[in-house]
Design goal:
Elements: E1 9-13, H1 20-33, E2 38-42, H2 48-59, H3 64-89, E3 92-96, H4 99-109, H5 114-124, E4 132-137, H6 140-146, H7 161-177, E5 182-186, H8 191-205
Parallel strand pairs: 1-3, 1-4, 2-3, 4-5
Helix pairs in contact: 1-8, 2-3, 3-5, 4-7
The structure holds thymidine-5'-diphosphate (TYD).
Thymidine-5'-diphosphate (TYD) binds near residues 16, 21, 44 and 71.
Length: about 210
Amino acid sequence: MTSNPKGKFISFEGIDGAGKSTHIAFVAETLAALGKRVVSSREPGGTAVGEKLRDLLLHEKMHLETEALLMFASRREHIAQVIEPALARGDWVISDRFTDASFAYQGGGRGLDRAKMEALENWVHPHLQPDLTLLFDVPLEVARARLDATRTLDKFEQEQADFFSACRNEYLRRAAQFPQRIVVIDSTQSIAAIRAQIGTILQELL
Ligand code: TYD
């Protein structure tokens, strides 16, 4: 069924309101149509323990370092229970956020020392990185306008413009640091244009 039995790991990133959710479904459908087995997951969360941590992380105020540690605790569980077993089976893993989000939000947004972030990354996944990261990038005003005002915003979504500006800058810094892994997608484009771009990127990965 597949020419390449080995699965790949794709993560999706961007500030809240950048529009990644729309495209995650598209990537899952595209890969499934090509005969790939796809495991869709998210962070924080993706496991029973991780979803409990997500509930705390998205709704409780806490010390910055507690927040970073819990993000990585959720990630440790996610890697052990979901990501590594799936990749070992040859499945594809698509994750709504991974470690770049910790660098962007806890590092950029909240200002946690980058050396501490790197220490956590080296502890929790010294040998694992996504094969591909799609970073959906939009100006802050566009992202804010896209947040659904009819629902209650979570702890992060309630942050102010300077927080998201710092998150976005850190995402772009990571993209410049790891250009072979992270592809920046101009998320102000039409959905059709973004789908076409993603289609080309997936072809290269296959
Ligand atoms: P998000 O992925 O935007 O989910 P939804 O589309 O359901 O709102 O929500 C997760 C939030 O968690 C988001 O605001 C970013 C934040 N986050 C961090 O601050 N650090 C991390 O390491 C991760 C994975 C997420």
